[in-house]
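re: ur question from earlier - yeah i can do the single chain one, its not a big deal. heres the input i used so u can compare w yours
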Amino acid sequence: MNTRRRLTGVVASNKMTKTVIVEVSRTYRHPLYGKVVHKTKRFQVHDEKKCRVGDEVQIVESRPISKNKRWIVEKILKTQESAQAVPAHDEV
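and the output i got, formated as tokens:
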């Protein structure tokens, strides 16, 4: 196992070619006030695995690929099921 950082997040956007936006959220307790704080950070990630919005992925840091891309999708942990067809209401 190498020493590269690995994070788990959810794909928020896949509108670019070979790039996805992954949201990584973390929860921690504030050191002074004790309140639980939720933080979310968005990363531009290189994607060769064709991720879809809603997929849970593991990303790993890498060499700079472009101006903003420093992460690569390592594996897809959970896939988002395709949108289920909503039955139409019968009009009476």
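The chain is about 0% helix and 50% strand. not sure if urs matches, ping me
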